[in-house]
Design goal:
Belongs to the flagella basal body rod proteins family. The chain is an alpha+beta fold. It contains two helices and 20 strands. The protein has two domains: 117 residues, no CATH class; 136 residues, no CATH class. Helix 1 runs antiparallel to helix 2.
Length: 262
């Protein structure tokens, strides 16, 4: 019975982590470029009362008797499905149609990756994120530039006074990973590579490495399915209630044994 208490408690702890994950998904359902997460579970060690395969007789083997000791959260899987597009009309808002991440340079010099393409110009005309991180490769837009256009292949052009033809200001590059689900979320819509994700593979949008293309004047919404999250919330609640019921029943059985001693 004591074993049942700890086993059920592990289930309650796992469902609490599950609910925390659902809460984070719902909180970020309106965050541009956000990728929802799903918690994965695994069973814990088993107590072998009778080892499976042990010989009961020279002719037969036992099927074994194992009692599980609970569950635990094993991993937080990132769901990499495409989010819906939201037209903003902002010239520097970009959405990626397909795979790939924007590259940005952080203040400490490291490179991070994001699907959130809400960019603007800083006081030097450089394309930056909302936090001021420089988009890579760095692109500077003159203050007198007009008719700024970013093609689906990342080519940035603008009309500069005194020039008859549109000036090419640079080309945006994207990055992808062998296992994008292994990227590390650090907040601020940013991701960093890990040994699980592998190193970044960079290319122009629509390139031969399978990069997606760009859509100017729009943002990619979060890929969180709010209805599915509410269903997952209910399932987590029911599982939590079931485990708490086990704790209550085991406690009653233990109380009855104590009563027998008296």
């Amino acid at each position: 019975m004591i074993r049942a208490l700890y086993t059920a408690a592990s289930g309650m702890s796992a469902q609490q982590a599950n609910l925390d994950t659902v809460a984070n998904n719902l909180a970020n359902s309106a965050t541009a470029g956000f990728r929802e997460r799903r918690l994965q579970f695994q069973d814990m060690i088993y107590q072998n009362v009778i080892v499976p395969g042990s010989a009961e007789s020279p002719q037969t083997n036992s099927a074994g008797l194992q009692i599980g000791l609970g569950t635990k959260s094993a991993a937080s899987e990132v769901i990499m499905t495409q989010g819906d597009f939201n037209a903003t009309g902002n010239t520097l808002d970009l959405a990626i149609q397909g795979s790939g991440f924007f590259q940005v340079s952080r203040p400490d010099g490291t490179i991070a990756y994001t699907r959130a393409g809400s960019f603007h110009r800083n006081n030097q005309g450089t394309m930056v994120t909302s936090d001021g991180d420089t988009v890579l490769p760095a692109i500077t837009i003159p203050s007198n530039a007009t008719n700024l256009t970013i093609s689906q292949y990342g080519i940035v052009t603008a009309t500069i006074p005194g020039q008859t033809a549109a000036a090419q200001l640079g080309t945006i590059q994207l990055a992808t990973f062998v296992n994008p689900g292994g990227l590390n979320s650090i907040g601020g819509n940013l991701l960093t590579p890990t040994d699980s994700s592998g190193n970044a593979i960079t290319d122009v949008p629509g390139g031969t490495t399978g990069m997606g293309t760009l859509e100017q004047g729009g943002l990619e919404n979060s890929n969180v399915d709010v209805v599915a999250e509410f269903v997952q919330m209910i399932l987590a609640q029911r599982a939590y209630e079931s485990n708490s019921k086990v704790v209550h029943v085991a406690d009653d059985m233990y109380s009855q044994i104590n009563g027998m001693i008296r």
